[in-house]
Design brief:
Elements: H1 17-25, H2 37-43, E1 50-54, H3 60-67, E2 71-76, H4 79-92, H5 94-97, E3 100-104, E4 117-123, H6 129-141, E5 143-154, H7 175-179, E6 187-201, E7 204-217
Parallel strand pairs: 1-2, 1-4, 2-3, 4-5
Antiparallel strand pairs: 5-7, 6-7
Bound molecules: S-adenosylmethionine (SAM).
């Protein structure tokens, strides 16, 4: 996210396609062009198969997964994001682009196909608290036996260190909330932690934390 001024509560338009279309319409890139650190750390040791990414944004996680050999379904609420990401990656990394299917969907009203993916992942997906459990449960259900669920979010504690994150505690999933998605009888939890990493926003360096759930569905 950028160092914009934030209202007191999440504005309803933030959960609509138009908000994201407008953000992605800006000529300059929003993010770094690199895949997310937590994705690379957690997915590098997985055998490639079929991956579903929810909230693919500028597409660099999808690109990285495809470069590792994954067949990727990259979904986003923003048609502008999808168009820009697919055009850029087709130019930058044509072989990877052939492995990516871009799919416009609002995940809050969509249930991914059950058991269809060897990896289901999202990074920093903004969800209303009341919809989050249902969306994450749908994503978990889309993981095939033996496959991996990887959910990454910002951490509530980073609001305290001055980083310009949206200041709404209810938008931050907790480790306890994520743990409840992967009961032990059906899942092996591989990673469940808040992991620090360096980040630069507006020229200032911060140490921020990723809230990471990585779990393997028992076969
Ligand atoms: C903070 S950005 C993160 C983008 C990317 N995952 C990354 O880490 O660079 C959130 C992304 O989720 C998408 N998004 C927001 N609400 C969504 C929804 N309900 N369904 C699908 N995608 C959504 C936005 O368009 C945006 O691309």
């Amino acid at each position: 996210m950028t160092d914009e001024q934030f209202p007191d509560a999440p504005p309803p338009e933030m959960f609509r396609a138009e908000y994201w279309d407008e953000r992605f319409s800006a000529p300059e890139r929003i993010w770094s062009g690199n895949p997310n650190v937590a994705l690379v750390a957690e997915a590098a040791d997985l055998a490639p198969g079929r991956a579903l990414e929810v909230g693919s944004g500028e597409g660099d996680d999808a690109r990285w997964l495809a470069e590792q050999g994954w067949e990727v379904t990259a979904t986003d609420i923003s048609a502008v994001a999808l168009e820009k990401a697919s055009a850029r990656i087709a130019e930058q990394s044509p072989a990877a682009a052939e492995r990516i299917t871009w799919w416009r969907t609002d995940v809050s009203g969509w249930e991914p196909p059950a058991g269809a993916f060897d990896l289901v992942t999202s990074h920093y997906l903004p969800l209303r608290p009341e919809q989050r459990a249902g969306v994450f449960a749908g994503m978990a259900a889309a993981v095939a036996p033996g496959g991996t669920l990887l959910l990454v979010s910002h951490a509530l504690r980073d609001l305290e260190n001055g980083m310009p994150l949206p200041p709404w505690p209810e938008m931050f999933p907790t480790l306890e909330e994520l743990a409840a998605l992967v009961p032990e009888d059906h899942w092996e939890t591989v990673t469940l932690e808040e992991r620090p990493r360096p980040a630069v926003y507006g020229g200032t360096e911060y140490t921020i934390h990723d809230v990471i759930l990585r779990a393997r569905r028992r076969a």
